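Field: sequence (string)
Field: structure_tokens (string)

Example rows 1 and 2, in order.
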Amino acid sequence: MTASERPAALRALRLAAFRTFYRLPQRWRRRLVRWGSAHYIVGAVTIVRDADAAAPGRILLLRQPPGPGWSIPGGLLNRGEPPVVGAARELAEETGIRLDPSRLRAGVPNAIVHSGGRWVDMVFEVSVPADQALSIDEAEVHEAAWHPLDALPRLTRPTARLLAHYGIGPLKDHPEDD
């Protein structure tokens, strides 16, 4: 086969494959697409800033098992759950801060794809008074505390990478570095 015949042969093969695919029952097509597609876990996280103008530049961080680093409130979405609802639910579960999901603002960027893993975090932001009482779920959270942006504790690697996209933390000048 010559080089000029090869593209025509590939086009014909591709056309035959698509015709065969579309003749399959819809449920089989769906299974094939799911089998051949990348699978990602989707979570929702919230960057919680201190609303107190006298102490600007603080965020709420959590120390959670199993690692020694600090992270931001968040977790996995339930099947079919809108990301903003999941973010508000996780915030309430982990910190006791109960907010209507409409109070959460989509982060810019709103989705962070973690290149080292197969998960996507939908990111939201909110400001709340730091004197609001926190009620942590001790099964999920060891400690919750407000930290100045210029003196953050040791962050988990995924948290440091995520916050860098928002100009926060030790990786803020290099958000894409591993």
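Row 2 begins here:
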Amino acid sequence: MNSEDVDLIERCKKGHAQAERELYRRYSPMMFGVAIRYSNSRHDAEDIAQDAWVKVFRYLKSFSENNSFEGWLRRIVVNTAITHYRRQKKHTHHLDIDEVYATPQDLEAFNESDYNKEEIEKAINALPKGYATVFKLYVIDGFKHKEIAETLGVDVNTSKSQLSRARKALQVTLLNMARIAKKKG
């Protein structure tokens, strides 16, 4: 962490409003980007980011400059998003994909370079919420299955099976997108 960030954080810990505004200006785009990955809408992402900022300023005094500040922020946003997801889950009914099968031909045809970022994001967002959450935590944010299990309150094997099913579902979705694009083109 550079000395400018250390100084900024120290001033925030002392309650300087200008330093808090600067910290927010500097890190809010990154935090919103993480929040949007874990939400269903821009509105939900804004709620998650706002709740995360409240936690950042509440617990900033516990942050140690020996750690990565961006990593600390990212962890707060992810945990806030998971809490948000759990609250939402209580109020919605989920239909889960029991099994998704890909044929050997599908697997041969799958080539990551055939898809752009937007298509991959669209396919990930089309996953059932549980699959998408585990996939994002594992693949994008680098969590281990044990961490995912503890964070989501599920068994490690559930995390592993959700990731496996998410990958299969993504393959099928991306292949279907490619077939549709091929028919149009």
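free_text_note (row 2): The chain has two domains: 3-89, 104-184.
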